[in-house]
Amino acid sequence: MNLFYAPDIETTLTLPEGESQHCARVLRMQPGDEIEIIDGHGTFYSCRVVAPHARHTVVEIISSRHAEATWPQNITVAVAPTKHMDRMEWLVEKLTEIGVSRIVPLLCRHSERREIKTERLEKIAISAMKQSLKARLPEILPLTSATEFIASCGGNRYMAYCDRSIPRRELVEVYAPLADSTIMIGPEGDFSPEEIRLALSSGWHPVSLGPHRLRTETAALTACETFHILDAAAACGRLTNPNTDSI
Asked: How far is the C-alpha of 162 from the C-alpha of 211, rounded, in Å?
């Protein structure tokens, strides 16, 4: 079954131009052919092609089904874009595949990349969502000042950094499973001491991801997988986190 992305399919019954072109010109779908459409909000639609067209293919919905989210809570990854954009694009692809809720590119004091093309990242996320057979697309925010994000973010917040002069705890020691969480990862040059102190004064938890220095994209994935493992253990009743009530 071919998978297409149309965020407004329920109201428009029409594929977007790019998806229409793939349907009509590349796959040469004909009236009556069946396709599957995802809306990026968690729903799969089984559809039948009514009128194939390179710009606006019309379909009818046969049935729909809701897909459960990968995570039981919302996970936000705020990360400074890497100097080489292909590494940031790779990270967006992987974060989409593992099902995070929101990706926030951060502009930090030590950032080597100070501009990004959000549209390009969104296209990569859409492709990764389709390839991994998911129906949920993470929200990708524009490049956001780290200081602005630190002050505006609520919930369970964790800041991972390398500066050993400012005390940290291991993420596994302070993480509160199954609760909405945000992890913040700095640039190749790390967060500045001022950014770290601002986060700590705003209630962020200073964390380490282990004894070794990790690349930015590796650190982001490591943190998410740590969340995932601890969430799974908590869901199975095998983990009691003494810090949960205090976070």
From this structure: 10
